């Protein structure tokens, strides 16, 4: 569904997404948002659990790339360099073009690619428009600001649709 806001699968947090699950879906390239998906925006360096998770993906033959709309490049560039993963910046999500550029760089097609993020209006919509598997997580650190709480509430009906479709609670 190209313009759907409904993710294909919800997870509580990124670490719940296992290589076995991704391989079962035929995924060889995992694209991911950074802020509030892998770390809160205020965190400047990846922590050890994130490094371990990426290493486990790599050991299972799954490529990983960060696709971010972030325009102030320093933090994202440093975070990704520290993590040792490639970074597609100025992605313009919900446009699919950043995801398509990342797939071209990685040599993967849409049938073998997933996009992970915390926001429906950017990450999930971009994933669905690009025709890749749309995976969603709850924001790291939870919804803290007033705007995050509003956004969180607005996302709920679409997440509910996903839960009903998959029969999964997360
Ligand atoms: Mg985000």
Tell me what portion of residues adopts beta-strand conformation: 5-15%
H/I helix tally:
6
Question: Rg to the nearest angstrom?
Answer: 15 Å
Low-confidence stretches: none
Overall pLDDT score: 93
Main β-sheet, spatial strand arrangement: 1-6-5-2-3-4
Distance between the termini: 21 Å
Element order: H for helix, E for strand: EHEHEHEHEHEH
What is the CATH class designation?
Alpha Beta
Assign the CATH superfamily.
HAD superfamily/HAD-like
Q: What is the level-2 CATH architecture name?
A: 3-Layer(aba) Sandwich
Précis, in short:
It contains six helices and six strands; from the N terminus they run E-H-E-H-E-H-E-H-E-H-E-H. It has 170 residues and is an alpha/beta fold. The chain has one domain: HAD superfamily/HAD-like (Rossmann fold).
Tags for this model:
single chain, 170 residues, globular, alpha/beta, Rossmann fold, binds magnesium ion
Report what the structure shows.
The chain has 6 helices and 6 strands; from the N terminus they run βαβαβαβαβαβα. With 170 residues, the chain is of the alpha/beta class. The mean pLDDT is 93. A 6-stranded parallel beta sheet has the order 1-6-5-2-3-4, sandwiched between helices. It has one domain: Rossmann fold (3-Layer(aba) Sandwich). It is 42% helix and 14% strand.
